[in-house]
Amino acid sequence: MANLRLTLSCGDYDRTRFLIEGKVATPGLDLEVVPLASPERHARFSRNLEFDVCELQMGVYLGWKSRGVPVTAIPVFPHVKFCHGAVVVHSGAGIDSPGDLRGKRVGLQAHFNPIAVWMRGVLAHEHGVSPDEMHWVTNADEQVSPWAPPEWLHIEKAPSGRRVTEMLEAGEIDAYMLPTLGSSFRAGKSAGRRLWPNYREVEADYYRRTGIYPLRHTVVIKDEVLERHPWVAETLLQAFEEAKTRGLEYMRDPRRSYLAWYGEAMEEDERVLGRDPFPYSVAAQRHTLDTMLLYAAEQAVTTRRLSVDELFAPSRASC
């Protein structure tokens, strides 16, 4: 019997490289892997579900899942990253602590962006600053439809041709929380500064206290594929797991990077996060997933409080 042909789009990372290069076995599958950066990949998949399998933002996936979009995830999380360091405030806005964000204009990539979901939740639950106490300004159109902001949410899109990073430099907003900080900030010429200057220590403390390493992306499969070929979920899970394991081992060689203290940084990460910092398993990620589902329901990212078990296709790691 001929192999099943599927298209897969994901980011080109150390934990996906061996899959992209065809060095990981996928029994029964002929995969056409299309490595794309997040903006293009998410836009193309959001328009018409272009790929059979796709790495997708967690916030968008949760929004879709509660609204019946016919895709289902496997417990693969290719992009996991702390978010405290993504919060930048204008130096002249009088923001010295999270509580000072009340009444401020805060930029986002989009309402459903996973950084927005995580940090709004952290601000509400750890610092007592709820999302309705800020005015939100977004860069992009939302990739979840239909969606209308609830009455309590003060949100607008940035004017045409403007980005929230530019608006912060001009003093038109007070803060932003974005996947990529502005070019002026990276060049050290920004009017902004991080809300938590010691964000690495803050993030490590957050992890030690909560056990949460924030999930940003997962991998979804079209339901029509799973209905006809349910075995695909387990096969892809195993392939992504092997690619991640091989990628982590490859990157443990300090010669892989030009960074002077790369090896020491790897050792520090392992002391905090362990040898496998983002396990592809529902059991291992249940607390993190439960927390994100709570935040998503509170923020109108989802239409209801989803359960962890309805997010994933049946597989060894989703039980």
Strand and helix layout:
Layout: E1 4-10, H1 17-20, E2 29-35, H2 38-48, E3 53-57, H3 58-66, E4 71-74, E5 87-90, E6 105-108, H4 114-127, E7 135-138, E8 154-157, H5 164-169, E9 175-177, H6 183-186, E10 192-194, H7 199-210, E11 217-222, H8 223-228, H9 232-251, H10 262-273, H11 282-298
Parallel strand pairs: 1-2, 1-3, 6-7, 6-9, 7-8
Antiparallel strand pairs: 3-11, 4-11, 5-9, 5-10
Helix pairs in contact: 4-11
What structural keywords apply?
11 strands; D-Maltodextrin-Binding Protein, domain 2; 5-stranded mixed β-sheet; 319 residues; 6-stranded mixed β-sheet; 11 helices; 2 domains; alpha/beta
How would you portray this structure in words?
It contains 11 helices and 11 strands. 40% of the residues are buried. The chain has a 6-stranded mixed sheet. It has helices at 17-20, 38-48, 58-66, 114-127, 164-169, 183-186, 199-210, 223-228, 232-251, 262-273, 282-298, and strands at residues 4-10, 29-35, 53-57, 71-74, 87-90, 105-108, 135-138, 154-157, 175-177, 192-194, 217-222. It has 2 domains: 4-80 and 215-310, Periplasmic binding protein-like II (D-Maltodextrin-Binding Protein, domain 2, 3-Layer(aba) Sandwich), CATH 3.40.190; 84-210, D-Maltodextrin-Binding Protein, domain 2. With 319 residues, the chain is an alpha/beta fold.
